[in-house]
User: Fold these one by one.
Assistant:
Number 1:
Amino acid sequence: MFSSLLEAARNSPFRGPLSTTHCEPALPAAETQGMAASTAPVGDSCEFGSPKYFALCGLGGILSCGITHTAVVPLDLVKCRLQVDAEKYKNVINGFRVSIREEGMRGLAKGWAPTFIGYSLQGLCKFGLYEVFKVGYSGLLDEETAYTYRTFVYLAASASAEFFADIALSPLEAAKVRIQTMPGFANTLREAWPKMVQNEGYGTFYKGLVPLWGRQIPYTMMKFACFEKTVELLYKYVVPKPRDQCSKGEQLVVTFAAGYIAGVFCAIVSHPADTVVSKLNQDKTATVGSIVGKLGWAGVWKGLGPRIIMIGTLTALQWFIYDAVKVSLRMPRPPPPEMPESMRKRLEAEEAAKSK
């Protein structure tokens, strides 16, 4: 897969008007016929909208969210510490320096286990259920209505999926924040989990669920709706050829670009709630009101810079991995939505009637 991406980048028509394209020399007719037979496209591994399709989407979500969130644990750790102790951790660079000085390089990996488990479960529900709800909600509408209001379908499907995804994530997120922001509390998930149960009961794992919904649902709505619309616009106005004429590698490049754009908006929309979640999981006596009152408007935006970098990169990689899984598993990948023929003809008739 990655070798095809490299070749696509070298030969891509996206590089610029002065770029040269290298073509292979022509082969004899007999050879090309044999090659065509041996490289004929293989059919999809499952039917779009089938249970197997949704299950594989969930697998793609596990890989995309679990891998990416675990990879940025050091940055996430510093971001959380900036949010809960701005006096000690003054900025990103200072946060890394203080953390390394006090705990060494290994300390930057604190919280990797709850991050990997929690976000793998979240990815399963987020991506898998998004596809379920998107197909389900679209099926409730006629073809023209589904096309006209497709952005609302994306928003509703992503919000519904994230509602359940956060229920799966909340316990692990609570443990992760304790490990990362409370020195001496615990160094691993195996230490933190029983301590939290013994001291505060199982309810502590869902203390931050409502703020988590407040952070993640707007984030996910932006993530999916912005991504879907950005892909549509990129193929319409930026990519110099139709999607069906792009190689798989070129399509994945578009996926990555659209994912990064969506990620920047996601970070901005969800950041205040992210700060509140971090503070709630650090201080068991705090409430949403007390935190907002103490921090003020400026305080809830602490750590936005590193979060934009983290979430932008994270979202782009998640969409890239998710789409790459679909390609690797030969899953159906419908093109961006196009105006239904019946709607196009109706609008043309209306326009013609107005011009008479």
Number 2:
Amino acid sequence: MVEQFVGTWTLTASENFDEYMKAIGVGFATRQMGNMVKPNLVISVGDAGVISMKSESTFKTTEIKFKVNEEFDETTADGRETKSTVTFENGKLVQKQTWDGKTTTLEREIQDGKLTAKCIMGEIVAMRTYEKV
């Protein structure tokens, strides 16, 4: 199911990410850092189907551990306290984060050997592309 996502991925392209960060309420200074860093995304599957998704950069490293279809508490890299759920739909890992009456969706999928992360907040869509290391 999620095995295709397992591995270390490095960010190679990012489109409209600043607008996305603005839409979810990220402040100017944090957006500047977020636009500069090229994080590695490390995805692994552990015992009992627990998935680890770690974002590593020189600025900040964050990690979430979750089971598909089970809600969990997440503190995002920009400090939001969210309730998150990751589902597996049509080959995509779809993560929904809710906080303060807002919801954002992150759709991760493998296309042509690359991992794409589509970040959606209302009408704003950012696309981030990762290549396997």
Number 3:
Amino acid sequence: MERWEGKVAVVTGVSSGIGAAIAKTLVEKGLKVIGLARRIDRVEELACSLADQPGELFPISCDVTKEDNILEAFKWVVENVGPVHILINNAGLTKLTNLTDGSTEMWREVFDVNVLALCICTREAVKVMKEHDIDGHIVHLNSIAGHVVHNVPSFNVYPASKFAVTALTESLRLELVQQKSRIKVTSISPGVVRTEFLEGMSGDDKDVIRQLPYLRPEAVADAIVYVLSTDPAVQITELTIRPVGEPI
């Protein structure tokens, strides 16, 4: 990780769970971390708790469903902190609805966060990396639900949004290869992680998931450190991590 010390990493969805763990870990590794979130008070509290670490956390209020918010955030980062070397597309969402008589607005919200925001943030980060001749790294927080559809009815459009992330990761990799770019792209697909994300599930499904073995958010942050630590000539395109004993 030494080559990333002092470099800028943008992380979306930093207010809790996996995003907060990622931000904390990268700050401890000496990076300048830009934490994007709507619940900015939580990010500010996290930044204060990390004041004695070698890196620094910069909280930025950003609703990733609004393109203008994303564009303004990246502009501020470049002008005030420096060019982006790493982007972690962590923000993710599921909504309590279904496919047979569900809410169009809820479906749209999930795709806005899980797919479109990821694409917009990626585009802006790659643009900065190219302008500054940076061999950066894009990491998409995917899910095992992006590879296999499980019998969890309240997931509704969530697996489809994560299957899109799987396809977008490989599409981006091929596009960068065609452009002879050295920017890396990685999809990280965790199994069950115990976070606030479970609140977007129905009671029955939530109870089933809660009984399964689970990962701590810090385990996902460690996986990100691992992929970032690889040799510049090595690209991990997909990393699946599951808790030991997970039956699904």
